[in-house]
Amino acid sequence: MAAPAVGRRVCGGGLRHGAFDLFAPPEVVERTSEDGPYHVLRLTVRGERPMQLGGFDRREDAERWRSRIAALFVGHPG
Question: In 3D, which of 1, 15, 3 has the Cα closest to residue 68?
Fold first, then answer.
């Protein structure tokens, strides 16, 4: 199974690096509902609407995924 194309953009039918500067650091946001609070992982791309990943019952789960995604950006040349 191929790795997801996080931090890459489609250009000319292929993927290329260089789009990391378009991403803001991911953040965990707590939302409320009738069933109680839930957590959303927001990934913002400059010029686009934020992507929101849900389904996290616990903040720790959302934070773990936030850390994993943020680690992709650390030390990346851009």
Answer: 3
User: Are 12 and 28 contacting, i.e. CB atoms less than 8 angstroms apart?
Assistant: no
Q: Quick one: tokens of 34?
A: 């009738």
**Each residue's pLDDT tens digit, 7-20:** 444 444 433 456 66
Quick one: which of 49, 5, 41, 2 has its CA closest to 25? Answer: 41
Residue 4 tokens, joined = 């997801």
Instruction: Give 10's strand partners.
Output: 15
Q: What is the pTM of this model?
A: 0.65
> According to DSSP H, which parts of 1-78 are helical?
59-73
